[in-house]
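hey so u asked for the seq, here:
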Amino acid sequence: MPRYNRPSGQERQARLKRQFAALYPGVVAGEWVPAWLLAEQLMASARQRGGDQEGRVCDPAHCEFRGGGRRPPELRGLRTRAVDNR
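ran it, structure tokens below
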């Protein structure tokens, strides 16, 4: 799985809700991890199942989020999610 350099500071965290674990084989549910890492794991799980990720990678119905600060000024106002362009 590729690793990318991420900004320092308080990272946004996410975890997969336990009741949705069966939908994402290989992804540990209930464990807080950096949101970018969970997104990579969910995309890898979708690829292994032979599909593409539809909609938001970290579906808010399936994931919980915490932390993270405000977006840096250079990212404010940008639409950075794949579904923002639809």
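Residues 1-7 have pLDDT under 50 and may be disordered. The first strand starts at residue 12 and ends at 16.
lmk if thats what u needed
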